[in-house]
């Protein structure tokens, strides 16, 4: 017997099938069941969707229970920073780049300043008063190549993801390229985008209508390239709006809900070191 579903049901079914996030998939499936036809020919289809919903909810509860057990076994979390003051700035740099000394100089903190790596083992906050405005500074443990693969590295970068601003602390006594490659590389792996406009590309999943591309003149490549890329991601129904000059990287980020956009500034330290003037010039370039 035919199910005779409505266009709204078909549209919602496509949205559900295109959704990958587990929690959102449950939401979309519940919406789909709310639009399901109420006649005998649709009973089997509705029953199948209800079974899928039950499985998805069981999987979600399983994941939540695993998270609860993991957090319980880990005990109290060190290095989790609650935002305070008018804004939060995270200081990010390689080991021994002068982050602790900088914070000590502008706050009443007394952080350990040492010439060995990870003298600051966890994210550490301090409060700076600027013209009667309190600004929270957070020193993160020194980054190294592969920081994101370590527990403390991921924890530190999660603090940076949630901050209002990231200060890249660059040591003028060390190689500039080496430092910047590590800092920017680890921030990129944490899905943190610095000083980039989130609104450059807007995407909207739809249940039907195919691929609709607007503002393609803002894209550095061709419209066909965008269509081919979306099809390679198995995306067949979507509205894409290029609102500012954009690249394929901007489009990738727009499709990735885990990407965050954070303001950033740069601070150079150890200006009295040998060859610091030349390195400062290199940093400016």
Descriptive labels:
three-stranded mixed sheet, Methane Monooxygenase Hydroxylase, Chain G, domain 1, 19% strand, six-stranded mixed sheet, Rossmann fold, 285 residues, alpha/beta
Provide mean pLDDT, rounded: 88
What is the string of SSEs from the N terminus onward? Answer: HHHEHEEHEHEEEHEHEH
| Strand count | 9
Report, as a whole number of angstroms, the end-to-end distance.
Answer: 71 Å
Second CATH tier, the architecture of the largest domain = 3-Layer(aba) Sandwich
Shape, please?
elongated
Proportion of residues in extended strands:
15-25%
Poorly predicted runs are 73-78
- Total separate domains: 3
Largest sheet: 6 strands, mixed
Number of contiguous helices: 9
Return the CATH topology of the largest domain.
Rossmann fold
What would CATH call the class of the largest domain? Alpha Beta
What features would you describe in this structure?
This protein is an alpha/beta fold and 285 residues long. It has 3 domains: 7-74, Methane Monooxygenase Hydroxylase, Chain G, domain 1; 87-191 and 266-284, Rossmann fold (3-Layer(aba) Sandwich); 198-255, no CATH class. Helix content is 41%, strand content 19%. The chain has 9 helices and 9 strands. It has helices spanning 7-18, 22-34, 43-74, 99-106, 151-161, 176-189, 223-232, 248-255, 276-284, and strands at residues 87-92, 124-130, 133-139, 165-171, 192-194, 201-205, 211-214, 238-242, 260-269. A 6-stranded mixed β-sheet has the order 2-3-1-4-9-5, with helices on both faces. Helix 1 runs antiparallel to helix 2 and helix 2 packs antiparallel against helix 3. The longest helix has 32 residues, at 43-74. The termini are far apart.
